[in-house]
Amino acid sequence: MVYSPTDSTVIIADKTGEVYSFPWPLSPHQETRYTHITQTLPPPSPANPLTKATDERFMGTFLLGHSSSVVALTMGETKWGRVLVSGDRDEHVRISVWPETWVIWGMGMGHGAFVSCLEGVRGGVVSGGGDGKVMMWDWDGGKRGECGICEGSCVRVVRGWRDLLFVVGERYCLQC
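Structure (tokenized):
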């Protein structure tokens, strides 16, 4: 899940590989419309779930799709605009132009297992994976660097702070 405050949008991926944006916070018009719809339709149930795109209560906008589960999302700033970066269980890092997410600007391919986390940094994006690797990609999808973790099999979290990059694995925290 990613929040874009400039667009007042929450971006969420589901287990089928689809990524949606939802307005947040809701405008007064959207709140009124949603309240009216929820009062006129039957309540959600297992037979009639709220998450169906055909349901009027579903306020999501489809952004993009992967062929497998999307595990990680992040936003990034490039010299030419913003990007939405998504990582999936098939080792792909997809860099899409924001908000025209159907335009794939670059693909990072190099992990040997699922992409577990992403972090936008100056000049590119850093990905961690189930293969124990941390990889740096430029915005065109070219690999700029790679390192492996010393202990454990999966990179859990990658976070940037100032000019530092923090990597958290299964049993340790490492500053790269």
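Helices lie at 28-40. Residues 78-175 form a domain with the Lipocalin fold (CATH 2.40.128.630).
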